[in-house]
Amino acid sequence: xxxxxxxxxxxxxxxxxxxxxxxxxxxxxxxxxxxxxxxxxxxxxxxxxxxxxxxxxxxxxxxxxxxxxxxxxxxxxxxxxxxxxxxxxxxxxxxxxxxxxxxxxxxxxxxxxxxxxxxxxxxxxxxxxxxxxxxxxxxxxxxxxxxxxxxxxxxxxxxxxxxxxxxxxxxxxxxxxxxxxxxxxxxxxxxxxxxxxxxxxxxxxxxxxxxxxxxxxxxxxxxxxxxxxxxxxxxxxxxxxxxxxxxxxxxxxxxxxxxxxxxxxxxxxxxxxxxxxxxxxxxxxxxxxxxxxx
Length: 294
Prior knowledge:
Elements: H1 13-39, E1 42-44, E2 51-53, H2 57-63, H3 66-98, H4 104-112, H5 119-129, H6 136-143, H7 154-182, H8 186-194, H9 199-210, H10 212-229, H11 231-237, H12 249-259, H13 263-286
Antiparallel strand pairs: 1-2
């Protein structure tokens, strides 16, 4: 089969075609990132009338700040919990939906709908459901002897934000897992069934290894999601409380910068957060991808 090549009549035309995307990337991503890096080396008042270059002082300050170190631990617990829960639940739902011969489209549509909900709306929804005064979930838990109070109990607050953030991401993961399952040749599964392999063994030895590229992709996406896109969920549910129990790094950047008006420290925290995400992505591609079977 011959491969067709696209030939442009003008040498400058390809650059004009990619110019809008380059402009968006430079204006909304590269330039703000550069501004954050530069601002992390400065100390300025809240009104921007006085600016002083302090070098790495902002970085040294946050690394010696117990509140920032606590946010690192909280972010680690939150990220691992959300990524694990959303991927596992999505995989189970995808396997269940893929096994249906009838009503598969209906179930798929119902499971995808939550992804259309904005993170802030999802946070408000779960805030009402888990509100210790008016929420349905605390009322049901009280019936089995557990007093739920995410306003005072840090563990309850962490469970709340993990559930809310995972619920929002399950639909996204479900779509990719379902697509991956439908792309697996059914002849392989039928051959294993003829050889006497049960459903569990077929999933472990055939289905899951063939889903490893999808799982790896979702692992990278979910880690980035927990680091950045969960800000609205935290802000709508716990606002980092109680006693900083849910104050993840991205929310601490907001509170220190926009509420505490410590712009230099906030910029340094955002740079460190960006470096952490880049490092985690590199580690995943460098080491985790070795176990991926393409």
